[in-house]
Predict the structure.
Amino acid sequence: MRFARRSSSAELRGAVTTSRELFNVRTPPQALDVLLQHVPARADGEEVPTRDALDRVLAEDVSSPADLPTFRRSTMDGFAVRAADTFGATEGLPAYLEVVDEVLMGHAPNRALGTGECARIATGGMLPDGADAVVIVEQTQEVGQATIEALRAVAPGENVVQVGEDVRTGDPILPRGHVLRPQDLGGLVALGVTAVRVARRLRVGIVSGGDELVAPEQAPAPGQIRDINSYTLAAMIRRDGHVPCLAGVFPDDYDALERAARAALEANDVVILSAGSSVSARDMTAQVVDGLGKPGVLVHGVSLKPGKPTILAVCSDKPVFGLPGNPVSCMVTYDLFVSPTLARLTGAVRPPRRTVSARLSRNIASATGREDYVQVRLEGRADGGLDAVPVFGKSNLIFTLIRADGMLKVPLDAGGLAAGAQVEVVLF
Amino acid sequence: MRFARRSSSAELRGAVTTSRELFNVRTPPQALDVLLQHVPARADGEEVPTRDALDRVLAEDVSSPADLPTFRRSTMDGFAVRAADTFGATEGLPAYLEVVDEVLMGHAPNRALGTGECARIATGGMLPDGADAVVIVEQTQEVGQATIEALRAVAPGENVVQVGEDVRTGDPILPRGHVLRPQDLGGLVALGVTAVRVARRLRVGIVSGGDELVAPEQAPAPGQIRDINSYTLAAMIRRDGHVPCLAGVFPDDYDALERAARAALEANDVVILSAGSSVSARDMTAQVVDGLGKPGVLVHGVSLKPGKPTILAVCSDKPVFGLPGNPVSCMVTYDLFVSPTLARLTGAVRPPRRTVSARLSRNIASATGREDYVQVRLEGRADGGLDAVPVFGKSNLIFTLIRADGMLKVPLDAGGLAAGAQVEVVLF
């Protein structure tokens, strides 16, 4: 142990910390904005059967090719009538109507109704010409073979769905960018729209860099760890409706990483490089990305924790991301930057993330000018509310994410959040 | 038009309305409870590669087969040191340390550290024996070839992740029933757990009944409509992680429906009959279901709107559902009864549905003793809040669901909800 007095080392230390990361550090919204300015909504479309289109993104506006219903339908079991024939009818003074037909389900009525006539009809049955309302069976009484009493008056249109009442020919029904839900598929098939044009699923290449990484099947030697990010990224890409393409694990070697990145860029619509965790490995990632094509790196460094050393780039018209090697940082930055970029490319209008309101259980410190994302566990309280309990872990280990139910954001301009504050937790 | 005075028709009308549906009408929670008492958590499992296990349901508890990390790792770029060697160090009086090694990423250190020695190390590097802390590079100064000054003291453990600090051998990490998220896959592969035992996906047979139904590809003749429910049900089953098996469309003919239902029961784990919309078609569905196996129909009729004529059954140990033919009723009752039953069969602990708080825009009437589900559209207000605007449509047409963003529940014991009430909307 040797000690020596020094006058000042500030100047020299300054030189050490001047890494590329300190240039152009942007807030997360600024960073995303810079990237998206270079990412066009491309909307390559493909036609798929409607029945297979769940969660796909419509590539064009859809309008109705037909009226729905296409015929006047009864909404109840009963008798199709001319409403005027029932006017004034009461239990005490019912209207007598002649049953001249029975409308069979799936068939047109056999004849039109004249004055004083009615036809037996079930829910969903087609109204005969001449009829304009339905008296429900509970408000009738059969008398004799072919006569009923209507015990109540019905107004014209009562218990009837009109042609086009659900949707009319030419009505816009679903907009481009809409993510198709079960009921949307139902509405489309109801109209006979058995195929739809949707945004092509994007291929997203994943290149994991790091001398320390081995594949999950391998037993790591001392100093080695298994690749995590390829698998969490692949799962998040799947959740977004796209196709992950794992390139594998590459050492922190410029040529090897550059070859792998270039091959991934060639084969995919988007590329994610999960960088090695040291500063030098991250700087190498930035150089590799910048060499892949114009305009190259747009953002290097974001005022975000975790996730500061994020690289956002566009190379030869394709988005390329250099995400931090730390597994938590990698997931946070995927959510903030990759996910919205994939939505932009497909034109998808995605619903907001699932959130829940909870009360923060303890103080959280943060630096102003930086967005912090803190993993929290949710715990039910006796009063029925929820507490958000921060799950702190040194260095953002993967299991802190597994023990958490969601994340909360400490905004850019907040110096932290106080215990007892009501916060919105974005659920995993 | 013929009128005639009648003393009373109440008795006769009573006879008409006495359908099976009026017996044993239960509240939705009671109905589900009766069904689930007959549905065991079966937990047929299968082994799948962890990388393909996103959104699958764990069929067994998983505990950690290893410590993570398996070696002491640096969390920063800097120098691995013996902390005691730095005690008292300041900028003015730094500690001199001899650089005796450089720890390469992915490799064990070449040697242990003795007193006054240190080793260059990057983030994620393996700590040498003898070292117990890391001085970050910004707090050091290189002097000469193989000597640094440590400008600040570090405590033992500082900037180091210990063996097992993320998770320890034998720790329970994920419980049976857990639905696997991206980070869970990451944690599992980090531990070398490359395959997991998950609940088998269930095959759910769908039989659509109704003389009026045709397949979507067909042009409906007058009186006919296209089958919707097979496709909305299939999509909801997919969203729940299971496999829909469409049997097709069958007429309201007892023998035809019975054959189709029996074949579906044979081939699947669960069967849904989407019934014809008339009372007689629904009664036929109940008879068909009751004949499929013991114990048969458990619930016929639920105090629910829409969805009253729901049939819940267990036949030969398999859940069988008779859902109303109306497309909105069909979706509501799938959510309330089928979805929780599929979760029970797989043991899945599903996260609650996505909800949002909104202010009701107008009064909604309801009957007490009945749960009402009302489709609503969400509209942003100037004050940043949301209004829930009921989307009313006669007879629950499919496009009322498409125009809606979610549903709100009018509870059993409420006579309705007043305009201005703050409500929770379950989002689609």
